[in-house]
Predict the 3D structure of the following.
Amino acid sequence: MTDLTELGVAAIRDGVAAGDFTAVEVAEGFNANVAAAAALNTFIVTTPEKALDAARATDARRAAGQPLGKMGGVPIGMKDLFATRGVQTTAASHILEGFTPEYESTVSQKLWNAGAGMLGKLNLDQFAMGSSNETSYFGNVISPWRRNDGGNAPLAPGGSSGGSSAAVAARLAPAATGTDTGGSIRQPAAFTGISGIKPTYGRCSRWGIVAFASSLDQAGPMARDVRDCAIMLEAMAGFDPKDATSLDMPVPDWEAALSGDLRGKKVGIPREYRMDGTDADVLASWDAGIAWLKDAGAEVVDVSLPHTKYALPAYYIIAPAEASSNLARYDGVRYGLRDLPDGAGLQDMYAATRAAGFGAEVKRRIMIGTYVLSAGFYDAYYTQAQKVRTLIAQDFANAFTLCDVILAPTAPTAAFGLGDMVSDPLAMYLNDVFAVPASLAGLPAMSVPAGLNKQGLPLGLQIIGKAFDEQGVLNAGLAIEARAQFSAKPDKWW
Ligand code: GLN
């Protein structure tokens, strides 16, 4: 029999439904891979029994002739930013260590309702702040990929959804949830040779997801291919009255409407994205992507996003501002850690708890956010950044009068080495340069694998779509996938 852990979401769903294998066999296979991959540090908590329980339920439904659900029999990894009832939820922070929610996030509940099972809670950058997974309190994830130059330097899996990306790339899970505030689904997907889509802001409920920057945070699937992303996104998306920014729109049947035929479609190439500091291999893969989309029938047009260079500075004002507000709730009173020095009063307890509970990057963001929101600087920073955000959204609106989707690299480089960027936060922030504009504009955007660079590391191409047009994004992704023929996977060393 084929190794079931080589299968993706669609193949598992269809195989279980057809009776080719049982959901329990699938769960056992992935549980075994997870147990054997401790060296990658992808999971903060593993829940093999939960994966098995869901699988048994799916097998029982099948035996009873009942429908199995969109994710029937598919075990997944859950980014540890989603509250899961009865299972520790930390956001990879010390301050939430030991926090066991009494409630389930809307997105995770929808996935369980669709027949998925949980393999465990995946490591991430602390409070989803980072691009490399190195800000996790629980130690960084190590990418399963290695350069082919024999150096064996441990590489970053991307971030913040680095546990998700590494787990899918290493065949520890057929798919995983991610969240994307400024690239955290797309950049790790690109670094590890998998696919991931951030839907339009509001498609997936934020209820029960630990908040980072609420006007940007959006959940989405990370999986092996475009079809698997479409299936899982259908299961995750939908209106939720518990999230005031949830989109009250029907969830389309994205899988059924998948088509890589782009005849009649226009693809925009933003000229401002050809910027210094982008690897030659990345630029070459972008050119290959343009050729593939032409081959799929699309017309390629030049577009301009003139405010691109202000996107990163605006993001690194808006996201910390919202974070400083959101993270004020962690004060040692209601959640997780409490540090109460002898004889301390209330203020001392807040200070001691926050000093001990937050990591350095989280503290940096809280301080930046507090500064840009302070009375004397609010207009100069925060108001200005909000205006820039509006201009960036207008840039996209103008571009989309000329094209249906936009094609760009996902990140300016392939995966970098762990430790290479930690001493230079600005260099780390620059890695988000192509991902952040779509986040500020709330647009759907996806990364699909495009090939390998000269060192044998995956590169991703990004497709950005109009608001609500996940279908257009997925279809362009499918057209690239069919031509890139990306089948590389990391050699197992763990
Ligand atoms: N890397 C970006 C940051 O550090 C994006 C993170 C995210 O999307 N959660 O803010």
